[in-house]
Specification:
Blueprint (H helix, E strand, L loop, with lengths): L1 H32 L6 H22 L3 H21 L3 E3 L6 E5 L3 E2 L3 E3 L7 E5 L5 E4 L2 E4 L3 E9 L5 E9 L4 E4 L2 E4 L1 H4 L3 E9 L6 E4 L5 E3 L8 E6 L3 E8 L5 E9 L12 E4 L5 E5 L11 E4 L6 E5 L7 E6 L5 E7 L4 E8 L8 E3 L5 E3 L18
Parallel strand pairs: 2-9, 11-17, 18-24
Antiparallel strand pairs: 1-4, 3-7, 5-8, 6-7, 8-9, 10-12, 12-15, 13-16, 14-15, 16-17, 19-22, 20-23, 21-22, 23-24, 25-26
Helix pairs in contact: 2-3
Length: about 375
């Protein structure tokens, strides 16, 4: 019987020791995270109770050293509770409250808490399909914009962070140059179209700060950038990805419409097959910005290169036709001019062939009696 009692006593002692160790471990964890989290009501009740104790101790503190020491402890404890009740949240040094992520990325918002002992941080989001709040941070799980809020449990102060989860642009295509007629669009919105893959990728646009135009962000879409025309001149629009990396630049020209347009010559005579001539314009302002395009029927007869980026108001034409060709110049504002390219070859084009060294060889002089030579072989 004695052994049984001793055995039971030892077991009870061991169990009690294990329980004490468990409590000690839990206590260690709590110390790291701060004391047990209290509710706002509990803190207010504790402050009220302490105020009564402090009032009573103040009456005794002058005559009792013990009461004076106790008063000091109670006042210190009251300050802690008041600090918890007045706790505030503030952004980090960079003041950043917006974060841009791609799907799968995580971020830990930077902020500080004025009192951490009793306040517990409560996290929430308005878009659980876009972000997930974990112990390691905020994880982007879908595309879109989410608001994440952190709140103190006692003081109920809060901070909000905007999380943008973006889809990267894989490909983008836009015109290098865009011309806008101020007569039509001055102080109005003009939309610059572009294409990107995927269509719902995230992008941003910036307009150079030169007074020519400004971005109308609210009217930008996945396929166009809206700008407001402010004055004549030249500016640039940049398209950027979600990491603010420049994807492409569009040159925007708000031009002065041409009042008149004339070719330097009404007729350009070509004396050699495949020769090159410059089609220029008469009395054209060297600073003109009204874009000019050429129109003609037989595209196979002429190869025209726009040289306006190198020589203002110049088109370089290489002519291969047998008959006269009428070319019409049309400005973006609707002003037109015409000229004619007339062939007057001294050598019959059919008498020119190319050998292996790509050098021209004259087979028969024009009108020499040798006749025209067809470069196509009709013999089987």
């Amino acid at each position: 019987m004695k052994k049984s009692v001793i055995s039971k006593t030892i077991k009870l002692f061991v169990c009690a020791l294990v329980c004490m160790m468990a409590v000690a471990v839990v206590g260690t964890v709590s110390v790291k995270a701060g004391k047990k989290s209290l509710t706002k009501k509990e803190v207010e009740q504790n402050i009220e109770a302490l105020d009564k104790e402090i009032a009573e101790l103040k009456e005794k503190a002058d005559t009792s050293e013990k009461a004076a020491k106790k008063l000091k402890d109670k006042e210190a404890k009251r300050e802690l509770y008041q600090a918890a009740l007045d706790a505030t949240l503030s952004l980090g040094e960079d003041g950043n409250d917006e974060y841009t992520l791609k799907k799968g990325q995580k971020v830990k918002p930077v902020f500080s808490v004025s009192e951490k002992k009793y306040n517990k941080l409560i996290w929430s989001t308005d878009s659980k399909s876009i972000v997930k709040i974990t112990k390691k941070g905020i994880k982007a799980i879908g595309y879109g914009t989410a608001e994440v809020t952190v709140k103190t449990s006692i003081s109920e102060d809060e901070l909000s962070f905007i999380i943008y989860v973006c889809k990267p642009v894989k490909k983008i295509k836009a015109d290098a140059d865009v011309y806008i007629n101020p007569t039509i669009y001055m102080n109005k919105t003009y939309s610059i179209p572009f294409k990107m893959t995927p269509k719902d990728a995230t992008y941003s646009a910036k307009v150079a700060d030169d007074g020519v135009a400004e971005l109308v962000a609210d009217e930008c879409t996945q396929g166009s950038i809206a700008i407001k025309v402010l004055s004549k001149g030249k500016t640039t629009v940049g398209i950027y990805d979600y990491q603010d990396k420049l994807l492409t630049t569009i040159n925007v020209v708000v031009y002065e419409p041409l009042k008149s347009l004339d070719f330097a010559k009404s007729e350009y005579v070509v004396t050699e097959f495949g020769s090159t001539i410059d089609l220029t314009f008469k009395d054209l302002d060297p600073d003109y910005t009204d874009p000019i395009k050429l129109k003609y029927v037989d595209e196979g007869d002429v190869d025209i290169v726009d040289m306006t980026h190198e020589e203002e108001g110049c088109f370089r034409a290489t002519f291969f036709g047998d008959d006269p060709l009428v070319i019409t110049a049309v400005s973006d504002s609707g002003i037109t001019a015409t000229c004619q390219i007339t062939p007057n070859y001294t050598i019959d084009p059919n008498d020119i062939i190319h050998d292996d060294d790509d050098e021209d060889e004259l087979l028969g002089g024009f009108g020499s009696g040798s006749g025209n030579h067809d470069t196509d072989d009709d013999d089987d």
